[in-house]
């Protein structure tokens, strides 16, 4: 029996490269620091925004590319190149001489005339989503010879999609949506790049000034070949579960029921994380004695000493792991002292990430409902759906997004093996709220 070929629904119609408006100007080199470097063996971080739009697609793309060129004036590392300085420390080189000049952003234009917005906005993530977003399966260390940002504009039957792939060694989720919001603001209002609402801070040494030289593999495939889990192919399903504002309040209330009055209450984020973790454990059919890991990619901007502004552009996250339900309290104790200790530990013995490092029976939570993903309006209205591509996804990976229905609702994007996903979809305790 022959394997069914994936549906090919997208046709590429053009390719180009967008540079900063003032491409002749050199900008300061950005040193990658301890918060950036562990992500060099993650994959490009993929985001997809789907819009209803009945206007001229070519005109819209022209406006988006013009705005992108302007946005790169302030967010210039995204147009630079990954390289090493004289001591072998990874940096982003930004403009200058020809051999070190701007790389720019790869832009693909495509059409998918038979694909409707509703298909890409459905709760079940369609396979063809990966035809909408670029650089699938590309590891961040390939930024040594690839652009650090790639964008695909795809014309749909009743709208269009913007697929972006960001080099994760360059920026985290907070910085990703800072850039997207600023790019949209420039397109929507026609403002100058210097007039955007929140200008980025590029001096990464303010967050961590330790220089670390990494011994990188010669290629992404060499690194993957050193992973003992390589070759263990597992079919995965991805889908979105939406929790209303009232549901979030109930989850938080239930999580705090019976806790001592003097105990600090669980936050909505902690409560939702616990709700998801317990439900996935049930869906996997785990026994009480089975080991399970809960991981949170935590924003440390307000936790370092001194605190960093939200406009800090780069990575300022750390993964916090725990193996017990009560361990959700590690969110509170992950303060500046804990962050510094974790950083020093990694700097003393730098380790390149493999997905097996996530741990057994893992549930890992990334992104945040704080990010203004449904406010990214380029002048065509709010997106109908925001979601992530397949890069950096494994069994148990969870992305939290602000719900498209507004308020404090949350969209929970979960990746699981087919049977646990089927069990989760039938779990009344998980869904009843």
UniProtKB/TrEMBL annotation:
<feature type="region of interest" description="Disordered">
    <location>
        <begin position="209"/>
        <end position="233"/>
    </location>
</feature>
<dbReference type="GO" id="GO:0016746">
    <property type="term" value="F:acyltransferase activity"/>
</dbReference>
<dbReference type="InterPro" id="IPR051283">
    <property type="entry name" value="Sec_Metabolite_Acyltrans"/>
</dbReference>
<keyword id="KW-0012">Acyltransferase</keyword>
<dbReference type="InterPro" id="IPR023213">
    <property type="entry name" value="CAT-like_dom_sf"/>
</dbReference>
<protein>
    <submittedName>
        <fullName>BAHD acyltransferase DCR</fullName>
    </submittedName>
</protein>
<keyword id="KW-0808">Transferase</keyword>
<dbReference type="Pfam" id="PF02458">
    <property type="entry name" value="Transferase"/>
</dbReference>
